[in-house]
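Tutorial, part two.
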Amino acid sequence: MHETYEQRRFCVGPGEWEGQVERLRAAAGSALFGVFRGQIGLEANEGLLVTAYSDAAKLALAVGALRAASAAARDVRTERMVATVRPAQPVKPTRPGVYAFRTFDIADADSAEFASLSERAWPDFESSYDVEIVGLWKNLDARAPDARFHLLTRYPSLATWEASRADVGRPEFARRHKLTRRTWVVTTTLA
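Running the prediction step on this input gives:
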């Protein structure tokens, strides 16, 4: 669980989506973790590319190719991340459904507790809603005293995602909410 990940958010013009995705897939090569197309909270032609590298140096070497592949895109934003309690290995998501990317801004001092609370709540949450927690990453670009986490969860449908919102009263989720300064979510599908 020492891989370094990059999340690259990008937007293209009408009719440019497929070409952009193919360029990004080619540039990412074996480092490709997933390409996700915006559904709610992103533009129709906006997406997220997630790549995984064995270490930060390999990511640094790949940045040029990814930057070149993103040249036709606009509003490109990147974040470097490291997996916390999931994924243990970078296994590409393949199941159809809705992929929710939730971002949490917290105090860096609360990072270990935040990850632990998440991990403890997930087994019951996953079995209650037939969902899969794909990963919880800590942003490497945020600096203490601040921290940012990215959670990726796969739901079978938007209806399931909506139904799961009622479960935020679970003690671990309630405590995690108290640690959260700011949070937001976008939903996507696999490209």
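The mean pLDDT is 95. In part three we will examine how such features are distributed along the chain.
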